[in-house]
From TrEMBL, chain A:
Family: Belongs to the YciI family.
Family annotation (PANTHER family): BLL7171 PROTEIN, BLL7171 PROTEIN-RELATED
Domain YCII-related: 1-114
Organism: Cryobacterium melibiosiphilum
Superkingdom of source: Bacteria
Protein name: YCII-related domain-containing protein
UniProtKB/TrEMBL annotation, chain B:
Occurrences of domain DUF6596 (ranges): 192-292
Record-level Gene Ontology MF annotations: DNA binding; sigma factor activity
Protein name in the entry: RNA polymerase sigma factor
Domain RNA polymerase sigma factor 70 region 4 type: 126-174
Pfam families: DUF6596, Sigma70_r2, Sigma70_r4_2
InterPro entries: DUF6596 (IPR046531), RNA_pol_sigma70_r2 (IPR007627), RNA_pol_sigma70_r4_t2 (IPR013249), RNA_pol_sigma_r2 (IPR013325), RNA_pol_sigma_r3/r4-like (IPR013324), WH-like_DNA-bd_sf (IPR036388)
Sequence similarity: Belongs to the sigma-70 factor family. ECF subfamily.
Transcription regulation recorded as keyword: yes
Domain RNA polymerase sigma-70 region: 27-93
Keyword vocabulary terms for this entry: Sigma factor, Transcription, Transcription regulation
PANTHER family per record: BLL6612 PROTEIN, BLL6612 PROTEIN-RELATED
TrEMBL record, chain C:
PANTHER family: BLL7171 PROTEIN, BLL7171 PROTEIN-RELATED
Protein name: YCII-related domain-containing protein
InterPro entries: Dimeric_a/b-barrel (IPR011008), YCII (IPR005545)
Matches recorded under Pfam families: YCII (PF03795)
């Protein structure tokens, strides 16, 4: 089954982590992709920081372009990866080893994708 | 400081102030050209702007004592280029980039010749809707007008750290999100131009606040705004709204000498018409007529047309209020903002009487209850209706909400009489 | 050319109350978008439609919770990645994206080859 895993962070908590700690944790994400390479599909996207986001919303007089993300939530999406695993249990087991989970405000959402 | 010291310090201060004005003129003429040329060369607005800002600061320091060199544009370009190369060498992540750069001599011919004006594409980039309005203004003031961060902070009454952060974020966003530096074509043009014109108009009105009240701005943003409105109008002669904004700012600027007398604000109705700059009013009328001939009406032209009505008056008593109100009604088709509706009530009171105007003012309460001028306009209507106590209360509320010293003194005078 | 993610935020209530025959129109809207992107000089490089948020799981510091990482009226229901000349072009494409009762967020993708 295919799932999208969404990597999310809370930018306002970023300063709570020392740069060394963060760098070390980010370094381990490369290994994580390597270790789990067999479930990784080619589909995925690594997004630039949320400060680069632009929103197009549909107002009464047509589309409105504005600075910032669509959602006002503190948590923001940093990237997606589509994985192909036997079941949800396998997806959870892999996601639990995501190296950034021990940083404050980091979470990963798992959503099944619609396959046509 | 005793009297002798003060007297000794006086001539130096006067000389520096005159030189500051000259420096401002030179820098605003060159800043955007240099930033644009360097951005093209370096492929990074962030780096280009930083290097140009550093060169401008250095220039101001040197030129203040030694005078402006014969070709200030070339001097600034040279210094900015030097700063950029310095930064590229210093920072490891840029080193690779260094080898890819074109010969800096190639950027030379484009600066200062006036053949290719890169300032407008840069301006449209700075005023992109994907940048927040506050940051659009801050970045425009820095990259286009060449103001320093402390000057912007003082002129916009914003903490320096906030201004600095807005500018950095905006520049990085232009680079990272791929905001193109170009004048949009086709259907996008009008909406994008309106953002540019809004930024210029905000620049002018923010300047008004500072000029009318608390001292401390060593550069008059109104001059920058008027200069920029002129650049846009000249570069885009077929854009009626660009002409409209220029006309509007000229009408306002022409009244400046009568509006602020010895640091005190004078209301339009009470202004001494002989203090108005007739030459500037004539220029505004010519620009507005030119705009009208393009047959593309819009909100800036209507604002200018309203300002023109006031400029035709010999004293406060002969204003053609029916025409003013008619123009406001047309303006509502383009701009239904509460501020426009509030300003319209002043004309409405003259045509339909103060009760009709008060009803409209009261309808705007939810949107404008925190705005001092809403209370001031309401006080005026109440006074016209003979409801003196309520008028006094409204004026006092306006006074509480006013941050600007000159406006406060004007309201205080009204409460006292 | 640069790559951008178009994150589609919509009110899930719209789909929950959608009669089965309405889904044809949804699929059609996305097909139209795919065609539109090409007609406007861009290209689609990826994308996924996500199953409803009721199927979402969030993992935070080793803990698994039910639901998406953020609760709000409009939720992320899918994304596309597109190739565009610059942000203006990406906005032009994003305006074509079907986002009933919501809006889209544009995020540039991380480009490791760019030093500046």
């Amino acid at each position: 089954m295919k799932y999208v895993i969404m990597f999310t962070t809370t930018p306002e908590l970023d300063t709570e982590v020392s740069p060394e700690h963060a760098e070390q944790a980010y370094g381990r994400t490369y290994d994580w992709f390597g270790t789990n390479s067999e479930v990784m599909t080619a589909a995925g996207a690594q997004l630039q920081p949320v400060t680069t986001a632009t929103t197009v919303s549909h107002g009464g007089d047509g589309p409105v372009v504005a600075d910032g993300p669509f959602s006002e939530a503190k948590e923001v999406i940093g990237g997606f990866q589509v994985i192909d695993v036997p079941d949800l249990g396998a997806a959870i087991a892999i996601v639990k080893t995501w190296p950034l989970l021990d940083l404050p405000g980091v979470s990963v959402e798992i959503r099944p994708i619609i396959e046509y | 400081m005793d009297e002798t010291d003060a007297a000794a310090a006086e001539p130096r201060r006067t000389r520096a102030a005159a030189s500051d004005r000259l420096l401002a003129t030179v820098i605003r003429e060159e800043s955007a050209r240099i930033v644009a040329a360097l951005t093209r060369w370096l492929g990074s607005l962030d780096l280009a702007e930083e290097s140009a800002a550093e060169a401008i600061e250095e220039a101001v320091r040197q030129w203040r004592t030694r005078g402006v060199p014969p070709n200030p544009g070339a001097w600034l370009t040279q210094a900015a280029r030097h700063n950029a190369l310095d930064r590229l060498r210093r920072e490891k992540r840029y080193r690779e980039k260094l080898t890819l750069l074109a010969d800096p001599a190639e950027i030379e011919p484009l600066t200062g010749t006036g053949e290719v004006d890169e300032r407008l594409p840069l301006l449209f980039g700075c005023c992109h809707p994907a940048i927040s309005p506050d940051a659009q203004l801050a970045l425009t003031l820095r990259a286009i007008c060449g103001l320093t961060t402390p000057q912007i902070a003082r002129a916009t009454l914003t903490p320096e750290s906030t201004v600095a952060q807005r500018i950095v974020r905006a520049k990085r966003k232009i680079g990272a999100a791929g905001i193109p530096l170009r004048i949009p074509e086709g259907s996008e043009r009008a909406a994008r131009l309106d953002i540019v014109l809004t930024v210029v108009s905000v620049m002018y009105s923010e300047a008004h606040l500072v000029a009318g009240g608390d001292a401390g701005a060593d550069r008059d943003l109104a001059d920058d705004a008027l200069w920029l409105a002129r650049v846009v109008a000249l570069e885009l002669p077929r854009e009626a709204e660009a002409q409209g904004l220029l006309a509007l700012l000229l009408f306002h600027r022409a009244r400046e000498g009568a509006r602020a007398v010895d640091g005190e604000l004078v209301l339009l109705a009470d202004q001494d018409r002989s203090r108005w700059d007739r030459r500037m009013i004539a220029e505004a009328q010519v620009v507005l007529e030119k705009a009208a001939m393009l047959r593309r009406p819009g909100r800036w032209q209507l604002h200018a047309a309203i300002a023109a009505c006031h400029s035709d008056t010999r004293d406060g008593g002969d204003t053609d209020w029916l025409q003013v109100l008619t123009l406001y009604d047309m303006l509502l088709a383009y701009d239904r903002s509460p501020i426009v509706r509030l300003n319209r009530t002043v004309a409405l009171a003259e045509v339909d009487g103060p009760q009709a105007a008060l009803n409209e003012v009261d309808a705007l309460r939810p949107a404008l209850t925190g705005y001092h001028l809403w209370h001031a306009v309401r006080a005026r209507m109440l006074r016209l209706l003979g409801r003196r106590d309520e008028a006094m209360a409204a004026d006092l509320r306006a006074l509480e909400l006013t941050a600007n010293d000159a406006e406060r003194r004007l309201l205080e005078a009204r409460v006292q009489c | 050319m640069s790559q951008y993610a178009i994150l589609i935020y919509e009110d899930p209530a719209y789909y929950e109350t959608l009669p089965p025959e309405g889904w044809g129109a949804v699929v059609e809207a996305h097909n139209e978008f795919t065609k539109g992107v090409v007609e406007h000089g861009g290209s689609i490089t990826g994308g996924e439609a996500l199953k409803p948020v009721t199927t979402a799981l969030t993992i935070k510091v080793g803990k698994v919770t039910d639901g998406p990482f953020v609760e709000s009226k409009e939720v992320l229901l899918g994304y596309y990645t597109v190739e565009a000349r610059d942000l203006d072009h990406a906005i032009e494409l994003a305006k074509l994206a079907p986002a009933t009762g919501g809006g889209v967020e544009l995020r540039p993708l991380h480009d490791p080859s760019s030093p500046l």
